[in-house]
# Entry
Amino acid sequence: MQAHAPVRPRTLFLDTHDVARLIGILGLPACLRGLAGTLRADYLRWPEFDKEARIAAYSEQGTIELMPITDGTHYSFKCVNGHPGNGRHGLPTVMAMGALLDCDTGMIRLLGELTLTTALRTAAMSALAAQALARRDSHSMALIGNGAQSDFQALAFATLLGVRELRLYDVDRSASERLARNLEAAGLPGRPLSVRICDSAARAVRGADIVTTVTAFQGRARVLDADLVEPGMHLNAVGGDCPGKTELDPAILRGADVFVEFPPQTRKEGEIQQMPADFPVTELWRVLAGDVPGRTRADQVTLFDSVGFALEDYSALRFLQAQAEAHQVGSWVDVTPGQADPRDLYGWLQGELQDLPALAS
# Structure
């Protein structure tokens, strides 16, 4: 019997252009809906995952973090930074890459960018939480902090919750003006977005159903004071993501019902790092699963203390893999040598060297 040639293991690689192409094929609203659906499905499998808080390296300039997770079938990780001063170097504040591996072999099935994808999955996660926690009649949102993540937050809430009135505030008015231009050009179906630039956080927040804070300042800030919070609001705190970085007046936390992704990580990095170790919180997955209630009263103040969790990147990578294969986007690369004899790595190297062109003398 003739022996079959070994299957050459190859890895699907997606760069930023590939992900942008996928978004163009699917449309941004469909991407956000697809991501939110994948996130919900994976959060409903929460007990199946081996979870841990992310591993971080902190410096005065920012943070670099490794975010791993596995369900026993697949293993994923993301390496991501947060450097608020990166604009001086012509770099984004947040940049990321990640991989999806098979647990039974360790083979890297997907390797790719996660900078654009993180922006999408963070916005989809915010909207998914708001679907469970905000009042059902919510139609207006204040968006405090109008940097790179703000566009995606605005579009996710418009797409997934039907928000149609946005009030924008940033200490840099030009950031709000850029965001307003982008939203006007987005061309979402349905009733047009009403976008208003405000000259203070107080004016943006007054009367809003939902308040999203997504600032980049590296330190303890009071982007939102307790006296601005009104009964029935849903607060979406996105900017806090490392020790020593917060956005909210601690009095807000004491007056709200607080929901989190993974308490061991959020108590270290989220808004609740300002509170005692036994400060009560509810894990969001339990609300999604119907185990515990989310919003129970119209006048209740709910807060999603969002720091980002590895499960969300796992979901995003799974979503990307499925869409890229379905639409034949991306390229196949040789992260693994794929030698005929798996034990003969040196022999494979010698063969590769023989195929290289000779160096010019």
About this structure: The first strand starts at residue 11 and ends at 14. Residues 1-6 have pLDDT under 50 and may be disordered. The CA atoms of residues 131 and 161 lie 7 Å apart. DSSP finds eleven helices and 17 strands in the chain.
